[in-house]
Design a protein that fits this description.
Blueprint (H helix, E strand, L loop, with lengths): L1 E2 L6 H11 L8 H8 L2 E6 L4 E3 L7 E7 L2 E6 L5 E7 L4 E2 L1 H6 L6 E4 L3 E7 H10 L4 H16 L10 E6 L6 H13 L5 E4 L8 H9 L3 E5 L6 H9 L2 E7 L22 E7 L10 H7 L4 E5 L3 H11 L3 E6 L8 H11 L6 E5 L1 H10 L4 H12 L19 H11 L11 E7 L4 E5 L4 H8 L9 E3 L2 E5 L8 H7 L2 E6 L11 H6 L1 H5 L10 H10 L3 H8 L4 E3 L14 H19 L7
Parallel strand pairs: 10-12, 10-13, 11-12, 13-14, 14-15, 16-17, 16-22, 17-18, 22-23
Antiparallel strand pairs: 1-2, 2-9, 3-8, 4-7, 4-9, 5-6, 5-8, 18-19, 18-21, 20-21
Helix pairs in contact: 1-2, 2-4, 6-10, 11-21, 14-15
Length: 588
């Protein structure tokens, strides 16, 4: 900690800050002066620890600038961030009231100024000004709600650091363009470069207080200004040129090794007219960011997407499984696009994973429809029957269709951030695919147990993602902060039949012929495989801001010929819903 008493007006400023705190908004001046004599005002550099979990409670702290992070043990030797504390918030009050050791560790997420009130002053405050307990209690309740609420929208960052990873990256140009994109929504955005390095902490605090967002453009290298930028940042964006290989000696020079830094996010600069993104695997392996965004130079749509992702205003689309009923997703997507929605992050399970992959390729409505028709309707991809030792179908046709339409693309090299889900029968849990060959992840995501052979990956047996989570909105909520749209095309799907159909139509049923009311074996296997995921799907729905459930009750899982009907139903239902409810959704 660095005691801050060098300012000529420190005492006056300290008193003014203290008097304006919510703890003292109704206290008399005498109490404020008495308790104020016990205050310490100090600075905590970004990454430094204020106190550790289990430590004795001897003070309460109040944030006057900057940001603190509250961390708890994750059970695996690491720490999990559970709360961020900003200007005006207190920390340490719970242990001061209970007398118990600190329940969490607190570190500065960036350069932070604090007021410290020791135990004697706190006890005097509570004794002489009991009304101060009410705002403390409210603050504790709000924090508890933030930690326990199912869908938590974290606050938008107030500061973002842009760090070029090679000298060829046009950092100044990108920073100016991004500042304009961030300002488009009415945000007050200010851009700072190395020319601001000589200013004091008071100046930076004043600038940040007067704006909604500050962009700190760091140097390409470990300069003092770059270090200050990272210390000030709520989020860090790494800028790399996808046409370059990472240098053997990183230009960042250890800047990102400091504990307590926010997780870095990689933006890959692509050529303006790139058909598909240049591979970014080497950059991902070097820096291991938590999130990635492709940015074509001069492309307004890509800049707008990056701005939404950085401000926690992105739109995530999650598509459920459902076989041929998944064609309804195509109609839903068309309606949402016409409404002005642009998707920033996409994902899904089973058939929904395939449709979402098309969106990650940035196929338009016509291409999406054409490719899905060619893959599933022109000829049935699930009719290469075999002796059912592992599955009814060989799976060769399905694999070839996936490779035809998605080629050798890697998930990490798609235009949109993407994930799909498979079910790991070896580990007994869902697997989220964020990297690797797209076709192989999709093949695992559609491997209906008993129908298609599973995919074996490093000894793990992977099957249809819908077995464990048919609409993985909870996964999207972990990967992206913003608005989540969930589309469930299997919500009203069930199998039923009369007794006579089973007794007299068993052979037809096994061959999946559409006679009587006997369900086909594929439908039975699929329903049996996914019925247990219904509870997880209900949990996932709690993470959705807009849930769309097209009425596809007349369409079966292998009714490929209902292609046009399913699309039209999804489109009409969604358009009617949007026109009737007029939901507020982020637009392009």
């Amino acid at each position: 900690m660095i005691r801050d008493d060098s300012h000529p007006n420190t005492v006056l400023r300290l008193y003014r800050l203290f008097r304006e705190l919510f703890l003292f908004d109704r206290a008399d001046g005498g109490l404020v002066r008495r308790v104020g004599t016990e205050l310490e005002w100090f600075s905590l550099p970004g990454g430094w620890t204020l106190f550790e979990e289990g430590a004795a409670a001897n003070a309460l702290y109040i944030v006057t600038s900057g940001s603190l992070g509250v961390f708890v043990n994750d059970g695996a030797g690491g720490a999990r961030l559970v709360a961020r504390l900003g200007v005006g918030e207190t920390v340490g009050e719970m242990a001061m009231i209970s007398g118990a050791p600190r329940s969490a560790s607190v570190r500065a997420l960036r350069d932070t100024s604090l007021l410290r009130l020791g135990k004697p002053g706190f006890d005097r405050l509570m004794a002489e000004h009991p009304a101060a307990m009410m705002p403390i209690a409210r603050q504790l309740v709000e924090r508890l709600q933030r930690v326990t609420v199912v869908k938590d929208h974290p606050p938008a960052p107030g500061t973002i650091a842009l760090l070029p990873l090679t000298p060829s990256v046009p950092g100044a140009e990108i920073a100016r363009s991004l500042a304009r994109a961030l300002s488009a929504g009415g945000q007050r955005v200010h851009l700072l470069d190395a020319g601001a390095a000589a200013h004091t902490e008071d100046w930076f605090h004043a600038i940040e207080s007067a704006h909604d967002l500050i962009l700190y453009r760091a140097d390409c290298g470990p300069t003092a200004w770059s270090r200050l930028c990272l210390r000030q940042a709520d989020r860090i964006v790494l800028l790399a040129d996808a046409e370059e290989a990472p240098p053997s000696v990183p230009a960042a020079g250890g800047l990102l090794d400091r504990p307590g830094l926010p997780a870095a996010e990689l933006v890959l600069l692509q050529p303006p007219a790139a058909g598909m993104p240049k591979a970014g695997r080497a950059w991902l392996d070097r820096y291991g960011p938590t999130c990635r965004c492709q940015l074509r130079r001069g492309h307004a749509g890509d800049l707008a997407r990056l701005a939404r992702l950085l401000r926690n205003k992105a739109v995530g689309l999650v598509l459920s499984g459902g076989g041929a009923r998944g064609f309804g997703h195509i109609g839903v997507v068309k309606a949402l696009r016409e409404y002005g929605v642009r998707f920033d992050f996409v994902g899904g399970a089973s058939m929904g994973a395939i449709i979402a992959a098309g969106l990650a390729f940035q196929w338009d409505d016509a291409e999406l429809r054409e490719r899905m028709h060619a893959a599933f309707v022109a000829s049935d991809p699930l009719n290469d029957y075999t002796l059912p030792l592992v599955a009814l179908i060989k799976g060769g046709k399905a694999t070839r269709r996936l490779r035809t339409h998605f080629g050798d693309a890697l998930i990490e090299d798609l235009w949109l951030p993407y994930f799909c889900l498979s079910s790991d029968l070896t580990a007994g849990r869902a697997r989220v695919h964020r990297t690797g060959p797209l076709w192989r992840a999709l093949r695992a995501s559609i491997a209906i147990p008993g129908v298609l052979p599973p995919v074996v990956d490093a000894g793990a047996v992977l099957v249809d993602g819908a077995v464990m989570n048919a609409m993985p909105a909870d996964v999207m909520n972990e990967l992206m902060h913003g608005t989540i749209i969930g589309v469930d095309v299997a919500a009203d799907w069930s199998v039923s039949a009369d007794v006579d159909s089973f007794e007299t139509g068993l052979l037809r049923s096994l061959m999946n012929l559409r006679h009587g009311r006997a369900p086909g074996i594929v439908s039975l296997l699929m329903r049996a495989a996914t019925v247990s995921s219904s509870a997880q799907t209900r949990v996932s729905r709690a993470h959705v801001d807009l849930l769309i459930e097209p009425p596809l009750d007349g369409i079966g899982i292998r009714d490929w010929r209902t292609f046009d009907e399913a699309i039209e139903t999804g489109y009409r239902y969604t358009m009617d819903r949007l026109e009737r409810e007029r939901p507020v959704l982020p637009a392009a």
